[in-house]
Amino acid sequence: MQKAGEHDPSGYFLIEDAFYNDLRDPSAIDYSKPVFDWLRNSKDEALKKWECIINGELQQKQKAILGTVSTSHLPHFRAFDMHTTWFRDLRFRLGAAYLYCHQGDCKHTIVIRDMRLIHQEDMQNRAAYPIVIFQLKPRTQKCSVCRIYRAKKVAVDNKWAQENPCYFCDYCYSLLHSVDGIPPYENCSVYDYLHD
Ligand SMILES: [Zn+2]
Ligand SMILES: [Zn+2]
């Protein structure tokens, strides 16, 4: 995104009823603001949605049995700056799905799976935390043509290619496309490829 000039440093974590906005970068914007505006200006709609989320199924059963539905209340959402919040200040439930949103509307589910007391063999220096203990290796595609070299370009909707999207190493790409970097014809897009 940085390369494409579309990088946005803004983001937030939504944990229980609190937004933790990433405002470290001076150009970052408060993503939670439009949500709060919506909660304020469209209270009925928000409440309806909240009820559907919380007790959609239960509510239908209640309706069938009692003919009435108990009304729930919207949580009292709050917003904090992420960079001034400590992990120890978070209130969370193990196994609950929380949200990380960044780059406009790229959303990731976050789950705190387990929790334990510090062990003798753990790093004792507080400043060293958080510690990464697992990192998914990025997957890289091989060239779809020679199947030997790493792909450097990916073509979408290329009628000359055998697959869609089709991956090319630099050499195979140059064999098929006479003018480097220029798509072979309209409606075909070629992008630089780094990894999946
Ligand atoms: Zn993302
Ligand atoms: Zn190749």
UniProtKB/TrEMBL annotation:
Protein name per Swiss-Prot or TrEMBL: Uncharacterized protein
